[in-house]
Design goal:
Structural class: mainly alpha
Largest sheet: none
Helix content: over 70%
Oligomer: single chain
Number of domains: 1
Strand content: under 5%
Number of strands: 0
Order of helices and strands: HHHHHH
Length: 133
Amino acid sequence: MPTISIEAELSSDKLLEAVSQLSPLELEKFASQILALRAQYRAPNLSQSEAELLLKINQGVPPTIQKRYDELVAKRRAETLTPEEYDELLGLTEQVEKFETRRIEDLTELARLRKTSLTALMDDLGIRPPAYV
């Protein structure tokens, strides 16, 4: 992980400036950590099962898989995807869908524990449905 230089006392504008130096993958991971922190502030007395579910929900697709998936999707859009890359993309799509399915299952369980709807929970946590490509 790269190091970002920041001042000791930091305004939110300076913090945002520092965060803007992150790569897209690092930014995604950082955003997940921010959402988890926000959830802790909103519900500081989480049960053990809620805390475990939030950790799993915020884990996401491993960065190496997401990066390669994004690369192959970009090549597909540019119509430069080879047949071998197409097969790889199909395999990665299946993996990403499995991660997202597990995430939805965990979100559904957390909504059940909190006695709320999945939609309300996602709104509360600031989670948006994925943009499919």
